[in-house]
Specification:
This is Interleukin-1 beta. It is found in: Cytoplasm, Cytosol; Lysosome; Secreted, Extracellular exosome. By secondary structure, the chain is mainly beta. Helix content is 6%, strand content 41%. The chain is elongated, with a radius of gyration of 35 Å. The relative contact order is 0.12.
Length: 259
């Protein structure tokens, strides 16, 4: 039994090792004489930096072994005609940091509050053709129209830049959500079961808002899904509560007081 060594780089003018410093060496080992020649020969390509092993398991039945001496051309033909599998173990240089963020509801009981803007307009529920929130100045006898919101706090897998994520519930299984309409984020109300909001990720982030408190009482609510969009009310009384892109929009109010 004889061993034949073949330099692949020397035989293939077009062969250029890809990111491998060490030169590849192919070792061809002829099987014992008593073995069936049609069972083939084994070829191993070993590159330590990448732990690559290519095994030639079987020669074509038309291939005849003439001896242990091979020309470069013959070895190249054997190599490319009989490779059946290639296993590559890559080296990972960077950690994966793009895992989807998710939010789990806190075990603390939800906070229940009435919300009014800085012009003392309270949020009320209007049920017409559509159900929506409006901001209205209420007289003393109409305070019962105020909507008590249920603020559920969430624990994020990734710490937000500011604020704390919450969900805003309006009555039983009715929650505020920020969705896109004609390419613009809008505020709406959706019916969803509370147990479906215990863990939130992906598109369900439309139900989350980052609650930020400045001073002691002034609060703002920024959409988690659409960064830079805030829950807002109009200066005009009785208008729909909606989203606006910035806290500096002249005709919208984005700061509130929780009562």
């Amino acid at each position: 039994m004889a061993d034949v060594y073949f330099n692949l780089a020397a035989a293939l003018e077009s062969y250029k090792p890809d990111s491998v410093e060490a030169e590849s060496t192919i070792k061809i080992k002829e099987h014992d004489a008593e073995c069936d020649q049609h069972s083939g020969i084994d070829i191993e390509v070993v590159d330590e930096p990448h732990n690559i092993v290519i095994a030639l398991h079987r020669l074509k039945k038309t291939q005849k072994l003439q001896g242990t001496e091979f020309s470069d051309e013959e070895l190249c033909n054997i190599f490319f005609e009989n490779v059946v599998e290639e296993y590559v173990t890559p080296t990972v240089h960077q950690k994966t940091t793009n895992a989807a963020d998710h939010y789990d509801s806190s075990e603390q009981p939800p906070q229940k509050s009435f919300i009014c803007d800085v012009r003392n307009k309270f949020l009320v529920l209007s049920k017409g053709i559509t159900t929506e929130l409006q901001a209205i100045t209420l007289q003393s006898g109409n305070k019962s129209r105020r909507v008590q919101l249920e603020l559920t706090t969430y624990k994020p897998s990734v710490t937000p830049d500011k604020g704390r994520p919450i969900a805003l519930g309006v009555g039983e299984d009715l929650y505020l959500s920020c969705t896109s309409s004609s390419g613009k984020p809008v505020l709406g109300l959706e019916v969803v079961k509370k147990e479906d909001l215990k863990s939130i990720s992906g598109d369900m982030k439309r139900f989350l808002f980052n609650k930020t408190v400045s001073g002691q009482t002034v609060t703002s609510f920024e959409s988690v899904k659409y960064k830079g969009y805030f829950i807002s009310t109009s200066y005009t009384d009785g208008q729909r509560v909606d989203m606006c892109q910035s806290q500096d929009v002249p005709d919208r109010l984005t700061t509130f007081t929780l009562v």
